[in-house]
Amino acid sequence: MSDISFKSETAKKRHQQVLQAIDDIAHKDQLAFLTTKKVSQESGISDGVLFRLFSSKESMMAAWLDSRGEQLRMTLKVMTIGERGLHQLTQKLLNDRVSLSFLCCSPMDTPYLRQQLEYYREQFRRFLHTHIELMKMNSSPLTVDALTDHLLQSIYRAWNPENPQRNQHKELLMTKLPWEKDQNQMETFPSQDILQRLALNDSGFVFDPESGRSFTANVVGLYVLRFLQNHSSADDLLAAIESDFDVNRNDAERDITEFSAQLRKFLV
């Protein structure tokens, strides 16, 4: 191998090391605080060699954006149309930490690089929107925009390194699209029409004007009823309860299941 060829191959290898180091930084959600020193530490490449490969931090980030944006484009290019294709795409993304971090991590601090990253993400959102729109989902009460945002939020929760339940989110999303899970879960509750007719007061007194029945709900039960009068997403309900009552997802799901069983006996 000639010296020129060797240098070229070495430079190519180091170039990939740098991009992989940025992948690791993005996976930790530290892209917004990226420095050349951090890249040097993650890649094991000295600052001097780093600046022989890239003229600046910005050029290094631009190379990463181009490479990972093209990788995402190729993933989307081979996706098949329909629900099965959407399942396969979601599963592939969840097993691809590079593309997943590219789509989910906090953006960098340089405005034009941030805009470029947001461009790729908006293209991804439009891609999902188009494919969801093509699916036959007449049974869903949600709009295509809502379904698209729901899927994006679910993907983010499965990635977010600060989310202690991200493994559970990932496991669920690997088997079902989020609205499929919602539909199954919401079947345990009375219909929204029934829930909306209930009269509630702050003391927890609940009255059904159609049947004349009444009962008293605790703080969480009252919260659930008010939420379901305005929303149809079980996943959003669970997330809200986790946040507002500081409970984990498993406990929230158990309590919701028990409450919904009692509610159906009373109202249906």
Describe, in plain words, how this protein is organized in 3D:
This protein is an all-alpha fold and 268 residues long. It has a domain at 188-268. 70% of the residues lie in helices and 3% in strands. It is built from 14 helices and 3 strands.
Summarize the structure.
The chain has 268 residues and is an all-alpha fold. The protein has 14 helices and three strands.
Biggest β-sheet strands, sense, barrel: 3 strands, antiparallel
Catalogue the unreliable spans: 1-6, 182-186
CA(first)-CA(last) distance: 79 Å
Binned strand content: under 5%
Rg, rounded, reads 24 Å
Descriptive keywords:
268 residues, mainly alpha, elongated, disordered N terminus
How do the helices and strands line up, and which of them pair or pack?
Blueprint: H1 3-27, H2 36-43, H3 47-53, H4 57-77, H5 83-94, H6 97-104, H7 111-134, H8 144-159, H9 166-175, H10 178-186, H11 192-196, E1 199-200, E2 205-207, E3 214-216, H12 219-230, H13 234-245, H14 249-267
Antiparallel strand pairs: 1-2, 2-3
Helix pairs in contact: 1-2, 1-4, 1-6, 4-7, 5-9, 7-8, 8-9, 13-14
